[in-house]
What we know:
By secondary structure, the protein is α/β, with parallel strands linked by helices. It has helices at 41-51, 66-72, 92-100, 125-135, 187-190, 201-211, 231-243, and strands spanning 9-14, 35-36, 39-40, 54-61, 81-86, 111-116, 119-121, 139-145, 177-186, 216-221, 225-227, 258-260, 265-266, 271-273, 276-278, 283-284, 289-291, 294-295, 300-301, 306-308, 311-312, 317-318, 323-325, 328-329, 334-335, 340-341, 346-347, 352-353. The protein has 2 domains: 9-227, Alpha-Beta Complex (Spore Coat Polysaccharide Biosynthesis Protein SpsA, Chain A); 257-360, UDP N-Acetylglucosamine Acyltransferase, domain 1 (3 Solenoid), CATH 2.160.10.
Amino acid sequence: MTETSLPELEAILLVGGRGTRLRPLTLGTPKPLLPTAGVPFLAHQLTQARQAGVRRIVFATSYRAEMFREAFGDGSAFGLTLEYMTEETPLGTGGAIRNAAQALTCGPDAPVLVLNGDILSGHDTADQVARHIARRAAVTLHLTEVEDPSRFGCVPTDDEGRVTAFLEKTPNPVTNRINAGCYVFTRSVIDTIPQGEVVSVERETFPGLIESGALVLGYADSAYWLDVGTPAAFVKGSRDLVLGRLASPALPGPVGELLALPGAVISPEAKVDGGTTVGARAVVESGAQVSGSVLGDDSVVCSGATVTDSVVGPGARIASGAVLRDAVIGDGAVVGPGNELLAGSRLWPGVTLPECAIRFSSDV
Ligand code: GTP
């Protein structure tokens, strides 16, 4: 990571979304606070931002705003100063940035880092800021390369790195580079976003800046990058952190096949691997197999159950012989014996799925 000599770099963290794609996990907890590799997701972003030279962060909150202050307080545990700005009704990404900017202390020419609160990235943020300053850009966008850009809007650049367009999703994208959700804004540019209005940076601010001839730069690289907005991506993010595919100073244990939090009880006859996190006081009984998953605090995986690439919410119980693959089990839910929940299945908090009554057998 590039060393930065910037004094007191400030950032805005966008954390006000409702995280609808991650329901039911986000019914009670905002996406940026979901336990990920043993700590709230944002802990990974906060420690990385601190390493990149950020000293003060304004949280742009809306959905369940009070939970962020409860989790992170004044930020001193992270060596940061944290401020909280809340939108009574969500103002969209651009409106949220403008609203949060009222709590910035920097002058009009200073760079301000803006982060989506649901991104894991290994890119060199300090270098992105340094390039922004060197080129005197209005905004510098981190761009990442994906295999299938048709699922995203794409962001073409010219030979000098200048962004030439912000294109909507299309079956035939002109580039595989997409917006990676980490921006450096020159402070005065934020002040041009209308205040108190719903504004999208992706659909309005960036296309408008490009149209007006302002220098919008791309900072493209191929470092680790993941948007944890869907259940499958969320589980992948957690297991990648546990396995060390992305380094995080916030990881509360050594990198390895599993991360067991205090009080977790794992039978020696159970198989737990693939970057699984076993929550505090969670139990994995003998003969159970758990791979690449997140087991919440106080959850139980009974003997002979199989859990793969899934999230088991706090206090949930997976009975003997049940099979989960790519599934999300809400807090306190019970999956009765013999059930198979596959391919994106979701069980809402507190629901009990009785013992599976249908048995397929060659004898029938
Ligand atoms: P979905 O409902 O699943 O799309 O999730 P989301 O809205 O929480 O996330 P999305 O990927 O759409 O937004 C990107 C980032 O911007 C996330 O970190 C959100 O928390 C944040 N965000 C989105 N809309 C708002 C808003 O209106 N206000 C604030 N403060 N943050 C927002």
